[in-house]
Amino acid sequence: MSTDKHVTYEDAGVDTAEGGRAVDAIKQMVKETNRPEVIGGIGGFGGLFSAAALKDMEDPILISGTDGVGTKLVLAQLLDRHETVGQDLVAMCVNDILASGAEPLFFLDYVAIGHIEAQHMAKIVRGVADGCKLAGCALVGGEMAEHPGVMRPDDYDLAGFTVGVVDRPKMLDPANVKVGDVIIGLPSTGVHSNGYSLVRKVIGVDGIVPGTPEAEAKRAELEAPLAELGNKSLADALLAPTRIYVKPILELLRSGVAPVHAIAHITGGGITENLNRALAADVDAVVDRPSGQVAWDVPPVITYVAEHAGLTPDEACKTFNMGVGLCLIVDAADETAVVAKLEELGEHPFRVGECVPGEGKVTYR
Questions:
Q1: Which terminal residue of the chain has fewer beta carbons within 10 Å of its beta carbon, N or C?
Q2: Is 4 a residue whose pLDDT tops 90?
Q3: Would you say residue 275 has pLDDT above 90?
Q4: pLDDT exceeds cutoff 80 at 10
């Protein structure tokens, strides 16, 4: 089809000038995440990172991970809070490769958005840069893709990609887990970035379009303090960013205090479908359910959502992290030393359970 009308790319909904301003707005944030291995800056066709340091390893293994933030972004858009979802994005990727004992080296992000606004984009990327600094990895590049006609102007989605390295002799392996090992947990900051499809149904935000009167009324409701959450709002509790465990865990692994046999990052599928990924084929994990006798707390927001959804204890443990963001499996004889080192690093570890003969499953008591 031909037309006599002059139509520009901007007329079609893509503002390349605003895209350029967005890149300018995030350059300093990206620079703040640099490591010595970074070569150049953003703006080229690829991110450059020197691998010279890997030559000092006996057998360097590169480990990559990719993930997104999921439907937690629906809440961020409804509440017009975009500063922390970037940390969620980084956390979901770097915590995963940490489970192999890897140090994250660099990170790239992909933002698909209906219409680019430089300041809006800067808020999102600020969270990514903050997450990279918490993980000690460099933000070496990414992509901002404007999708007019596919997404609403204020709608966006995030994806992230990280590469890390571990020396093969130091790589963690579930095959090392044995009967009698203990499972140590580190606390989560809340729901993290999984289970939000259920969360959205429970709090009644499905189908609400940001910027409408209905959205404003729901936003006021979600920002009101709730006694069940210790006078915190659902907005604050549900948008709390995912914890990044990289620095304390790498410090523990490098300290030589005691070997860690395996690590599980508790994400989608909860404890039930993540802790099993860190087990040997002939070992089960027996997890003590949180109670007055067990020394870990379920975040009030998880209890709130689970109760309002009518979840059974098994369903809750298969959906949410239940306050356990990361699990470490160690020899029972090393538990005291590992816990002491984690506490020295400012962590608050607790016993989650133990390993017994089995077939690679998670059970509860």
A1: N
A2: no
A3: yes
A4: no
What does the alpha-carbon distance between residue 345 and residue 251 come to, in Å, rounded to a whole number?
8
3-state SS class at 337: helix
Nearest-angstrom CA–CA distance, 184 and 249? 12
CA 328 – CA 260 distance, rounded (Å): 7
Q: How far apart are CA 44 and CA 310, in angstroms?
A: 51
Give tens-digit pLDDT for 226-271. 999 999 999 999 999 999 999 999 999 999 999 999 999 999 999 9
Domain ranges of the chain: 16-170, 174-195+241-364
For residue 38, which phi and psi values (nearest 5 degrees)? -70, 135
Residues in the chain: 365
| Geometric angle at alpha carbon 72, from 220 and 24, rounded to 5° | 95
Q: How confident is the model at residue 1 (pLDDT cuts 50, 70, 90)?
A: low
Measured CA to CA, the distance from residue 122 to residue 175 in angstroms comes to 43
Homologous superfamily of domain range 16-170: PurM-like, N-terminal domain (3.30.1330.10)
**8-state DSSP, 177:** -
In the chain, at which residue ranges do the beta strands (DSSP E only) sit?
A: 38-39, 48-49, 60-68, 103-113, 138-146, 156-167, 182-187, 225-226, 232-233, 260-265, 283-287, 324-330, 350-357, 362-364
Closest by CA to 44, choosing from 133, 149, 142, 132, is 142
Contact (Cβ atoms closer than 8 angstroms) between residue 163 and residue 61: no
Residue 111 has pLDDT above 60, yes or no: yes
127: which DSSP letter? H
pTM: predicted TM-score of the whole model, two decimal places: 0.93
Among candidates 50, 84, 232, 250, which has minimal Cα distance to 158? Answer: 84
Return the CATH class of domain 174-195+241-364: alpha beta
